[in-house]
Every structure is written in structure tokens, then in C-alpha cells.
Specification:
The complex is a heterodimer.
Chain A (H helix, E strand, L loop, with lengths): L4 E5 L6 H14 L3 E5 L7 H5 L9 H13 L2 H9 L1 H9 L1 H18 L3 E6 L3 H18 L3 H13 L5 E7 L3 H16 L6 E7 L4 H4 L8 H16 L4 E4 L6 H16 L1
Parallel strand pairs in A: 1-3, 1-4, 2-3, 4-5, 5-6
Helix pairs in contact in A: 1-12, 3-4, 3-6, 6-7, 7-8, 7-9
Chain B lengths: L7 E6 L5 H14 L4 E5 L4 H7 L9 E5 L10 E6 L2 H11 L9 H6 L7 H15 L4 E5 L4 H7 L1 H8 L2 H10 L16 H14 L1 H16 L1 H13 L6 E8 L5 H12 L6 E8 L1 H5 L8 H17 L8 E6 L6 H14 L1
Parallel strand pairs in B: 1-5, 1-6, 2-4, 2-5, 6-7, 7-8
Antiparallel strand pairs in B: 3-4
Helix pairs in contact in B: 1-15, 3-5, 5-6, 5-11, 7-11, 9-10
The chains are: A alpha/beta, B alpha/beta.
């Protein structure tokens, strides 16, 4: 059984978006109601090309909606959000905005028990900011409605049936170590141990598998040998092949079967 | 290729393209030429931190790194700061002579390494270092992708923070920091009071008091925060800085890179360099394949990736620099290799 909130993270450029979109495809093929969200106002254009469902979150709208619910008045919430004071507050404390967006995602999942959300989250450091923001603001607020809401967020986020974090890396020592560091930091924040995905594996590449090692040019020999060493040293939840294509949508579709297998 | 020496060099690009390593190599190259250089870096991988000698509790502090670590002369060194927002804030407040003015729980939480203030504090650190006039060159590694734009806009965010409505707020309780619990009650200006009443409903009272205290502390140091605005003007001066947009062969993200260039271009001068990192040009050129064998498909896909990045050349860059893929596994040797590549330009 798959958790209903799947968060993809890892160092920049490891293929978070590719794996997140392939996961959406895989869940959709299983007949699940799945939405893609990237935490930005704009979704990547590929999401539409792939015919996937998505929702965009606007920080100001989310915050207004949240405030409106808490203060039982949309008018007051609109007025508050329009003040320079609040605009400046959000500008200076990006964590507050991230926390409200995260709260929004959780709300949706609670309202619809059949919904799955794949969150294509920002690169390592900014993902830590997002998950740490709930702790930081809890510490700041201590009491009040927000503090109670944050406690509820923590309960949900620590439930393995609810949230699963997927850390993506590449076959280089620096990328793998960074992924492991990130996992350890997320565990320290009270989250469940993330799954580690190795992306762009040259050894699993279709064309390389069909050829002998001697046929490879020297730079690919070096790459595959390094990867062999790394795979002896480190453990991975799943390994995704390097796809010989520069078309993003095609890459997503070609790794979808591997994702389907790994989700079960 | 001629790269003029400038006071500041900015390295930006989408995540994982090798900004930090290339910036470090550039700073080492300059130091190796006997120039005084400071490298300001943001959240590098742990292994790179170790070779740069900024592991553990030295985060945020100025450390001197011997070039011997990279197999260059042991008599030469460069200075490195791994950005830490709390350390920057402390330096800034100490310079103003009132380090205790920012001794506030909210400020402390927000300036933790992942507290979310990194972009704003980075610009303050940079301005602080520029003003010391200690270095011939400052090499700046920036946050990935659109966070770089956040960084460039940080000074206008600071400005917004000191918006008139805030100044109004401070007039009410004066510039002197007070810890008295009655502070909140003294804010009688109806608009502000109403706003804070709503805020209190959601956040609880303790927060509002701590918040006012935090804002008062920041306000006391506002000159330092606002000095970052000077930097915004400097960014538009070609003679002040070089900026490098980094892309990497292993990522097909030329659209993202171009978007970044265009957004940054509105805030900076356009005399910029495009770097194609981990380039496989040479390796692919010498790789002979038969059109019928499976590997031909792999080679063509790799060539296509490289060519899409090269296609960006026409998009108004001053010059394009290629860095071939580096194979050594030890980070120190990777950096040393890249220093030689910089030298060879």
C-alpha cells in the first residue's frame, strides 16, 4: 500500500521532477486519483503534455484562505493580507509561507480519503527548511490556533501510511553522500526514514546492457566501473536507468514501468 | 579567452550543475596567482566542506584554507566563509556595537541554517565583506535556480520590511529596546493595533511580543540591513562584477537556465558568461560507433543534450566556456583539475 503523500527530494539536478512525474503516471495507471504539485505557482509545462492532474498553490491565496477559516471572516483575512505589514512579514519569513502551503496540501488529503498527492519538493536545503519550518514556528508560537494546527501537522507527517519521502541521487559519491545526509536530517526532524532512489544508472541503461564492456568508450567504462563500486558500498531502494533521450516526456514514460514495480 | 579581473564574481545556475566546485576552483586559481580572494559559499556537500577546511563548527566563520590541500603551493591561501545566517547577523550587530540587540528567540530560530533567512543574510554578508575592502576578489556561490532571484531581490525585501507602516509602529514605543510585557498594550495606533489583535488570535500572545521585540532589534540595526541596497546598484555595473551562468551536460535544463538568465538579467548587467560543465564534447567526438549497434543511440542522445546547451550560445552571452567532465573521485583532486582548466582558458 502506497502512502498518500509522496515527497520527492534530493540535491539539485538529480531528476526529482522526472521521478515525481513517473510516479504520478504509475499511480494513474493503477487507477488512483493522483495530483502533482511542485510547491510553486507554476507547474512545469511537461505536466500538461503528459496529461497529468496538478494543482498550483499561490501563497497569498493559501494564506488568505487559511486566515479566513481561522478568523471566521474572509473579509478580515483579505484586509490583513493586503497590509504592507503582512506582505513584508511573508517576504522576510519564507518559512511561514512554506508551512502554510504544506498545511494546504495536508488539508486536501484529509478532505478526500481517496486522494494521492505527489509533491515535487525543492532541492535538499530548501526541503529541510520546509519540514523544519513546522518545528521552528511551533517553537515560536507555543500556544494558540497555529500551534495546535502545527501539532496536528506533525502527527500526520510522522505517520508512515500517510507520508513517504523519496530521496533521489545519482551514481557519484558526492550525490549519494548528500542524499544520505539529507535522509539523516529528515529523520532528526521526526520524519520516517526516506527511501533512497539511484537515478541515471549507466549500468541499467538499455543500450549498455545490450553491449559488452569492451565496446564502451573509455569515459563510459570509467562511469560503469565507478557505479559498480558505489553499488557495493551503498544500499538503494530502487535503481532507475539512464534513458538515451533528451525528450523529457519520453524519459518520464520510459521509467514509469520501473516506478510501478518499485511502488508495490 | 579573456576574463577581466573584477571585484566580484557571481556563480549561478540551476541545482546540481557544479556551481560550488567551479566557484571554489576559480577562487583557488586567483589565490594561486597571488591575489587575495574570498570564497563565500552556500551549503556545499560535506566532502567539499572537508577539503575546504570548513567542516563542523566553523560554519559562518572566516577560515583560511591553504592551497596545499589542492596540491598547490603551501605558502598560498584563500579565505572561505560557509554562509551561516546566525554568524552573519552576529558580525553585523557586533560592528554596530550592540550584539545583544538581536538576542531574541524569533531572530534565533529564523537564522538557523534552515530557518529560511539564508538569501537575505547572504546579501548582507556579501555587502559586509565588500565594505571591509580586504579582498581583491570575492567569489560568490549562489543558491540554486529561482532562489538566486530571491537572493538578488533580498535588498528590496529588506526595504519593504522597513516600510512606513513599520516605522509608524516604532515611533510608538521608541527605538530603545524594551522587554516589558506592556509593550503590546502601548501600541495604540488603531490600524496597527487591530492588525496585531488579529495576529494574536492566530499565534498566541507570546509570539506577538517576541515578534515586536525582534522587529525592534532589527530596526536598531537597520543601517546595516539597508546598506545591502547599495549592492543592488553595483550589480548593474560591468566593471564591478563578472557573472557566470552554469549549465551541465548531464541535465537537459536549457529552458530553466534561460529563464534564470532572463530574470537575473533584469537585475544585473548583461556582460555574462555561459559555462557548460561536465562537457563530453571531446569524448563524444572520438567515440566511433556503427549506426546499427545499440550504443549509437546512446551516443546520439548524449550529443543532442550537449548541442541543446550549446544552442544557448546564440542567446546573448559574452562568451561560452566549456569544462570537460572530471573523472577523479577525490573532491580535492576534482577541484585541482578544474583550477587547471580555469588556467587553460
Amino acid at each position: 500500500m502506497t502512502a498518500r503523500l509522496l515527497v520527492f527530494t534530493g540535491k539539485g539536478g538529480v531528476g526529482k521532477t522526472t521521478l515525481a512525474l513517473a510516479t504520478c503516471e504509475a499511480l494513474k495507471l493503477q487507477g488512483k486519483n493522483v495530483f502533482y504539485n511542485s510547491f510553486h505557482v507554476d507547474h512545469p509545462r511537461e505536466v500538461e503534455n503528459l496529461n497529468l492532474d496538478y494543482f498550483d498553490l499561490d501563497l497569498e491565496d493559501s494564506a488568505t484562505e487559511y486566515m479566513g477559516r481561522k478568523l471566521h471572516s474572509e473579509t478580515v483575512a483579505h484586509w490583513i493580507m493586503k497590509t504592507p505589514f503582512f506582505k513584508a512579514l511573508f517576504g522576510m519569513m519564507p518559512g511561514l509561507g512554506q508551512m502554510i502551503l504544506l498545511g494546504h496540501v495536508l488539508d486536501r488529503l484529509e478532505q478526500d480519503p481517496d486522494l494521492y498527492i505527489v509533491l515535487d519538493s525543492p532541492a535538499s536545503g530548501h526541503t529541510l527548511s520546509m519540514f523544519e519550518s513546522t518545528h521552528n514556528f511551533h517553537e515560536m508560537f507555543q500556544t494558540g490556533i497555529l500551534a495546535d494546527d502545527i501539532k496536528k501537522m506533525h502527527r500526520l507527517l510522522s505517520d508512515p501510511k500517510f507520508l513517504e519521502i523519496q530521496v533521489v541521487s545519482l551514481p557519484t559519491e558526492m550525490a549519494i553522500q548528500e542524499a544520505n545526509e539529507l535522509s539523516a536530517q529528515l529523520v532528526e526532524l521526526g520524519l520516517n526514514k526516506p527511501k533512497h532512489w539511484l537515478n541515471s544508472s549507466m549500468i541499467e541503461n538499455e543500450q549498455i546492457k545490450e553491449s559488452s564492456h569492451d565496446q564502451l568508450p573509455s569515459f563510459l567504462k570509467i562511469k560503469t566501473e565507478l557505479e559498480t563500486e558505489l553499488r557495493k558500498e551503498y544500499q538503494f531502494h530502487s535503481i532507475i536507468p539512464y534513458i538515451a533521450s533528451s525528450q523529457f516526456e519520453q524519459i518520464v514514460q520510459m521509467i514509469t514501468p520501473t516506478m510501478t514495480g518499485s511502488l508495490e | 579567452m579573456k576574463i577581466d579581473y573584477k571585484k566580484l564574481e557571481i556563480f549561478c545556475g540551476t541545482g546540481g550543475v557544479g556551481k560550488t566546485t567551479l566557484a571554489a576552483a576559480r577562487a583557488i586559481q586567483l589565490a594561486n596567482q597571488g591575489r587575495s580572494a574570498l570564497l563565500i559559499t552556500i551549503d556545499p556537500a560535506k566532502r567539499l566542506k572537508q577539503v575546504m577546511g570548513i567542516d563542523g563548527n566553523k560554519e559562518g566563520e572566516l577560515s583560511s584554507v591553504s592551497l596545499e590541500n589542492f596540491n598547490f603551493s603551501k605558502d598560498k591561501s584563500l579565505d572561505v566563509i560557509l554562509m551561516n545566517p546566525a554568524a552573519t547577523l552576529k558580525r553585523v550587530a557586533t560592528k554596530r556595537g550592540n550584539p545583544e540587540s538581536l538576542d531574541n528567540p524569533i531572530v534565533k530560530i529564523l537564522t538557523r541554517p534552515y530557518g529560511g533567512m539564508n538569501e537575505i543574510m547572504a546579501i548582507i554578508e556579501l555587502q559586509f565583506q565588500l565594505e571591509t575592502n580586504k579582498y581583491e576578489h570575492i567569489i560568490l556561490d549562489t543558491p540554486p535556480g529561482k532562489h538566486f532571484i530571491d537572493f538578488l531581490q533580498a535588498s528590496s525585501k529588506i526595504n519593504a520590511f522597513f516600510d512606513n507602516s513599520f516605522i509608524e509602529l516604532f515611533k510608538l514605543f521608541g527605538p530603545k529596546k524594551e522587554k516589558s510585557p506592556g509593550l503590546f498594550k502601548r501600541l495604540i495606533s488603531s490600524g496597527v493595533k487591530k492588525l496585531l489583535t488579529y495576529l494574536e488570535k492566530v499565534t498566541g500572545q507570546g509570539f506577538v511580543e517576541d515578534f515586536i521585540d525582534a522587529v525592534a532589534g532589527i530596526y536598531q540595526n537597520k543601517d546595516v540591513f539597508l546598506s545591502a541596497l547599495a549592492f543592488e546598484k553595483d550589480l548593474k555595473r560591468k566593471e564591478f562584477c563578472n557573472w557566470f551562468l552554469i549549465t551541465s551536460q548531464d541535465q537537459v535544463k536549457e529552458q530553466d537556465a534561460l529563464e534564470l538568465k532572463n530574470s537575473a538579467g533584469k537585475l544585473m548587467h548583461d556582460d555574462n558568461f555561459l559555462i557548460i560543465n561536465r562537457s563530453l564534447s571531446q569524448a563524444l567526438e572520438s567515440w566511433q560507433t556503427n549506426p546499427n549497434e545499440p550504443l549509437n543511440k546512446l551516443k546520439l542522445a548524449m550529443l543532442e543534450r550537449e548541442n541543446r546547451l550549446k544552442g544557448m550560445e546564440n542567446k546573448r552571452f559574452k562568451d561560452v566556456i566549456e569544462f570537460p567532465e572530471v573523472t577523479p573521485t577525490l573532491p580535492a583532486m576534482q577541484v585541482a583539475h578544474l583550477v587547471n582548466n580555469w588556467d587553460a582558458l
